[in-house]
Amino acid sequence: SGVSTASTVSPYTTASPSQATTTPSTTTTSTTTPQQPLVAPLKVYSYSKPGPPDCNIDVSEGVPVDVAPIAFDGNSLLTFYDKDLTEGVNVLLIVSDSWNNRCAKLRVTVKSQNCGDGEDCSGKGACYTNTSMEEYECQCCPG
Q1: Contacts for 30 with CB less than 8 Å, ≥ 6 apart
Q2: HSE-CB for 66 with a 13 A CA cutoff
Q3: Considering the entire predicted model, what is its pTM?
Q4: Of 41, 56, 89, 142, whose CB count within 10 A is highest?
Q5: Per-10-residue mean pLDDT, the chain, length 143
Q6: What are the sequence ranges of the domains in the chain?
Q7: How far is CA 122 from CA 20, 23, 129, in A?
C-alpha cells in the first residue's frame, strides 16, 4: 500500500523529468517512500548596472557566479560567496532551462560593516543602516 502525500512544487523543483513548473501548485503523489525535491540546475550571472531588462540574456555579457544550493525545509536556498559580490549594488540574474525563458533578477546590496571607530560606535550609540543609505552609520544615544 502506498502513502499519499501533497507537496508544493516551486520553480526550484520538478514534479518529474517530463513536467516542470515555474508557478507554485499543489500536487498529490502516491509512493511507498517520501519523494525528495529535485533541484533544477541553476545558472547565476552577475551584470554591471542595470543589467538586462528581461531574461533574453547573452551569457557573454554576464560573469558566471558560483553558488551553493542548499535544500532546507522543502525549499532550495542559494548561498553566494564573498568573492563574487562587491561592495555596493550587485545585479544577479538566475536562470534555469526548466523555467521556460523565465528568470529571477536580484539586486544585492553589500555594505561595509565599518562604523567609525568600532561596531558599537565607541560606546556612544549603535551602528545602523537602511536601504537608502550607502553604508552603516552611528546613531548616538541621548545622554
Answers
A1: 2, 3, 4
A2: 4
A3: 0.56
A4: 89
A5: 32 33 37 46 82 71 88 86 88 85 85 65 76 81 65
A6: 3-110, 112-143
A7: 54, 49, 17
